[in-house]
Automatic annotation (TrEMBL):
Binds 1 Mg(2+) ion per subunit. Monomer. Keywords: Amino-acid biosynthesis, Aromatic amino acid biosynthesis, ATP-binding, Cytoplasm, Kinase, Magnesium, Metal-binding, Nucleotide-binding, Transferase. It comes from Georgenia halotolerans. It is found in: Cytoplasm. This is Shikimate kinase. PANTHER family: SHIKIMATE KINASE (PTHR21087), SHIKIMATE KINASE 1, CHLOROPLASTIC (PTHR21087:SF16). ATP binds at residues 15-20, 119. Catalyzes the specific phosphorylation of the 3-hydroxyl group of shikimic acid using ATP as a cosubstrate. HAMAP family: Shikimate_kinase. InterPro entries: P-loop_NTPase (IPR027417), Shikimate/glucono_kinase (IPR031322), Shikimate_kinase/TSH1 (IPR000623). Pfam families: SKI. Belongs to the shikimate kinase family.
Amino acid sequence: MSETSPAVVLVGPPGAGKSTVGRLLAHATGRRLVETDEILAGPDGDVGELFLDLGEERFRAAEREAAAGALAEPGAVVVLGGGAVSDDRTRARLRDLPVVFLDVSLAAAVPRVGLDAPRPVLVGSPRAAYKSLAAERRPWYLESARWTVDTSELDPEEVCTRVLSYLDQGSTLDS
């Protein structure tokens, strides 16, 4: 890990547990948590509303800038919004970083996301939209990640432990 790189970057679809696991990782390691959704909408903001207000093109441009800033945070635990990997420049920035793809099945994600939860791109039929977006983004998550953890049947603490073990094996967090 470079001294100017994040300690770990979490990517994955909505409902995979990125925010929860990010908080656990930050707490466990004493590192700063940086979430692009929070950068965009503020700590009490609604990224779904922001998406609707800005429209997808302007939202994705803002998300790209938020991701660039987050990925420049030395030693941070970075959580990227689910769609951040759709941007070529963001994926290029992820190369050679300790990226973990938190994967999740549709069956496990739907109750976590909630059918009425304000998610930026899950307007209309949430199940169909989620399934379509997950399939579209999956290759980008896999391309970007060094490790993958399926969170479908794990609790957040188990996911955190698994991520820490991958990072320890890669000597990226404590080096």
